Amino acid sequence: MVRKSMAQKKDSPATPTEKKKKKKDKPKQSFAETVREYLVAILVCLVIALFVVTFIVHPMAVPTPSMHTPPERMIPETDETLGDYNLLVGDRLIVDKLTIMANHFPLARMLALNHEIRRGEILVFKSPDRNSSHYLIPYVKRIIGLPGETIEIRQNTVFINGRRLLEPYKYHHLGEERPSQFANMPPLRIPDNHYFMMGDNRDFSSDSRDWGTVPAEYVFGKPLFILWSFPDREILQKAFPSGKYRGVHEVNDPMDVLTLYFYRIIYFWKTRWGRMFHFIPRGQCNLEDAPAPAVIYQP
Questions:
Q1: CA 99 – CA 220 distance, rounded (Å)
Q2: 139-154 residue pLDDT tens
Q3: Cβ count near 12 (within 10 Å)
Q4: Angle at the Cα of 60 (from 224 to 44), degrees rounded to 5?
Q5: How much is the pLDDT for 174?
Q6: CB-based contacts of 70: which residues, under 8 Å, 6+ apart?
Q7: At what angle do helices 254-266 and 232-239 cross, to 10 degrees?
Q8: What is the pLDDT of residue 24?
Q9: Which residue of 46, 178, 217, 263 sits 20 to 30 Å from the alpha carbon of 243, by its own alpha carbon?
Q10: Whether residue 8 has pLDDT greater than 60
C-alpha cells in the first residue's frame, strides 16, 4: 500500500509551487555569457564565409564594357542576346574558384577536381598592370591564346600559329575594316604558363594587346552564372549627371558611394530580370587555314 502511494506521488504532475521552485533553481545566464555566445557564432559564420569566398566561389560585378554586347545583338524587348552570351556592365557574377585554383595542385588534378582552361572561355584574374590605380579590381576577359602558341593580329583578325581564329562573339564598334590602335599586332609567342586575354568589345577593351600576357597564377576563377543584373552605367549617369565618374569602379568617395546605393535602391525596378541565373557558356571559336592579309607593321 505504501509502495502504491509512493508510485502515485512520483507519477503525479508537479504543482505550480514546485514548478516555480525549479525555475528558481535553474541558473540564469549572465550578460557576458550571452555576448560571448553571439560573438562566437558571428566569428564562426565569418570564418565559413571567408573560406567559401577564398577557395570555392567569389561574387563580382562586371565593371567595364569590355565584354559588352552591342544593341544590334540584343533581342528586341528582352535582355537576351543573339549567339554567345556576352556580359554587360552591372552583371553580378558567381565565380567558380575551386576548380580553377585546383590546377595549381597536383593532388587536386589527380582527383579530377580541376578544370582545364580552354580557348574561348571567360576567365577572371588579377590585374597584370600593377601600376594601375584599379589593380585591385578583378578583370574579366575571354582567353584567346594558350601557353606556347604564337598569336598575331592582322586587320582585326586573330591568327594562332598561322591559322585564322573564327570568333562569332567579338564586336568592333568602329567597324571590322576600320583600323584602330590594336588592329594589327606582330607575331608574339605566348610564354609558358601564360595566357593571352582579350575583351569581346575589341575597340573598348584594355587587354593583353595593351599590357601583355597574363601569368597562370593570376587566374583565379571562371564565371558560372549571372546572379543579378543591374544597369549600373545608366544609374551612374542619373546619380552624377556631371560625368564625374566613368564607371562604378571609380566611385570611392564615401558620400558618393552612399548616393550611388541610394539610387540603386530607388531604381531597383530597373533590374534586368531576364539575365538573372543565366549560365555563362564557353564561346565557340574555331581555327581554320586561311591566307593572312598582308600587313606592314609600324616600328
A1: 9
A2: 999 999 999 999 999 8
A3: 8
A4: 95
A5: 65
A6: 171, 173, 201
A7: 120
A8: 52
A9: 178
A10: no
Q: What is the pLDDT of residues 97-111, one digit of tens each?
A: 888 878 777 777 777
Cell numbers given for 106: 597536383
| 236 vs 285 pLDDT, higher one | 236
Average pLDDT over residues 186-201: 93
Cβ count within 10 A of residue 173: 13
3 state SS of 75: coil
- Would you list the DSSP string of 246-275? SSGGG---HHHHHHHHHHHHHTGGG--GGG
| Cell numbers placing 74 | 540584343
Give the integer Cα–Cα distance in Å for 93 and 224. Answer: 7
Looking at per-residue confidence, does 22 or 153 come out higher?
A: 153
Contact 197, 144 (CB under 8 A): yes
pLDDT the model gives residue 187:
93
Q: Provide the terminal-to-terminal Cα distance of the chain, rounded to the nearest Å.
A: 115
Q: Is 227 left (phi over 0), alpha (psi -120 to 50) or beta?
A: alpha
Calpha distance 201→86 (Å, rounded): 10
Residue 286 vs residues 20, 164, 169: alpha-carbon distances, Å:
80, 8, 12
What is the rounded distance in angstroms from the CA atom of residue 145 to the CA atom of residue 187? 12
Q: Please, which pLDDT band fits residue 278 given cuts at 50, 70 and 90?
A: confident
Q: What pairing do the DSSP bridges indicate for beta strands 157-160 and 57-61?
A: unpaired
Give yes or no for a contact between 204 and 67, defined as CB atoms under 8 angstroms apart. Answer: no
- Which string of DSSP letters, residue by residue, matches 95-132? EE-HHHHGGG-HHHHHTT-S----TT-EEEE--S-TTS
